[in-house]
Amino acid sequence: MNKPFSQACENNKTPILNILKNTFSKCHTVLEVGSGTGQHGVHFAKNLTDLTWQTSDLIENHQGINLWIDDEPADNLKRPLLLDFAQLWPVEIVDGIFTANTLHIVSNSLVESFFKGVGRHLENDGTLCIYGPFKYDGEFTSTSNAQFDLWLKNIEPSRGIRDIESIIALAKNEGLSLVNDFDMPANNQLLVFKRQ
Ligand SMILES: C[S@@+](CC[C@H](N)C(=O)[O-])C[C@H]1O[C@@H](n2cnc3c(N)ncnc32)[C@H](O)[C@@H]1O
Most C-beta atoms within 10 A of its C-beta, which of 38, 44, 145, 191? Predict the structure, then answer.
């Protein structure tokens, strides 16, 4: 079987890494939720050698993630856990959580489940990073994001690009505050929350 490949991951992995280097600099263990192809995990683990990178996803993506790890193994890169937002998460407390391009793919209730999971598993003073597109004051940041949102909703009406205000409110319920909002290439954001 060929490794799964995402061109978007190839394009965004370096800009994301440049921010994670500083943002996760004090973290020991980062849980990646929704690792997808596994490209992000292998790249970040290789370049953030002071921390352990724990991949996770639904079972259907594990084979692909494992193929990437087979080709680029690292002592600090862990094979995927079966982690579904909607279920209890099979992890202890971690000091970092990362997710990319997941919150617009799942339903609103799964977005709420995601934050409940963060609330249960992120330690005090821990850091949460969320990468993806968002709306501000109900407005898309680009025409292409508006078109993407329509495309998502055609597949499943409860999907869609989230309002940043609703994400900040869900994070606040779990004791997290937004400390940085980085503009990223291709009309994406990297949101950094701290639990304080
Ligand atoms: C668009 S992909 C993004 C993958 C990768 N993070 C990236 O940036 O390319 C969305 C990911 O969310 C995962 N996902 C969807 N529903 C999920 C759920 N209920 N619990 C955990 N992960 C889920 C998918 O399996 C997929 O890996």
Answer: 38
How do residues 140-155 score in pLDDT, each as one tens digit? 999 999 999 999 999 9
At residue 196, does pLDDT exceed 90?
no
Atom 5 (ligand 1) nearest CA:
36
**171 near 103, Cβ under 8 Å?**
no
In contact, 33 and 114? CB cutoff 8 Å: yes
Cα of 99 vs centre of ligand 1, distance in Å, is 8
Beta bridge partners of 188: 184
Long-range contacts of the stretch 149-156 (C-beta < 8 A, 24+)? 149/104, 152/104, 152/105, 156/107
Give the residues surrounding ligand 1 with Cβ less than 6 Å away. 6, 9, 34-36, 40, 57-58, 61, 83-86, 100-102, 105-106, 110
pTM: 0.98
Sign of CA dihedral 162, 163, 165, 166: negative
Residue 1, pLDDT score:
84
